[in-house]
Design a protein that fits this description.
With about 160 residues, this protein is of the alpha+beta class. The strands form three sheets. It has a three-stranded antiparallel β-sheet with strand order 3-4-5, with no helix packed on it. Strands 1-2 form a two-stranded antiparallel sheet. It is globular.
Length: about 160
């Protein structure tokens, strides 16, 4: 586990930014600290890493799959439908110029016992999870240098 402090929130104007801190651990390894949870990322050995964790791109796809699963489970629970057997698989392909994820396919395994007339609504809810919505309506992203104490410079 990383010895990095847990950061609870950053203020940027009137918006509260949920913090995530990423710290280099050597080679292509990075530890990501999210509310005290540590997630290791690395690159496959075939790409020069040590394969001690998923790549950031794999975590990106996993985040989408996890969010779809969460929304699906909440829908099923809200409607007193079975959740046993609920699963999500996601696959992706890369594009270039610029390097990016070009295609994502998410497959939702619907539990046995979910009536056919509920499946369309379940898919609609699951496909409108927060991560999916953030991909469809892209967030504003800024990359800035950190100040002397790990805070973004206000006046670069």
């Amino acid at each position: 586990m990383s010895s990095e402090p847990v950061i609870t929130a950053l203020g940027l104007g009137s918006d509260v930014i949920q913090p995530v801190r990423v710290v280099h651990q050597g080679g292509d390894r990075f530890d990501i600290n999210v509310r005290g949870h540590i997630i290791r990322t690395d690159q496959p050995a075939s790409d020069g890493g040590e394969d001690t964790g998923p790549t950031p791109t794999e975590l990106f796809i996993a985040s989408l799959a996890g969010c779809v699963a969460f929304y699906a489970r909440r829908y099923l629970d809200r409607h007193n439908l079975p959740t046993d057997g609920l699963a999500v698989e996601a696959g992706f392909s890369m594009g270039s110029r610029p390097a990016r994820v070009a295609r994502i396919e998410v497959r939702l395994t619907i539990p046995a016992g979910v009536p056919a007339e509920r499946r369309g609504a379940l898919l609609a809810v699951a496909s409108h999870c927060t991560v999916h919505n953030s991909l469809i309506t892209a967030p504003e992203i800024s990359v800035v240098s950190a100040g002397d104490h790990g805070r973004p410079n206000v006046n670069p």
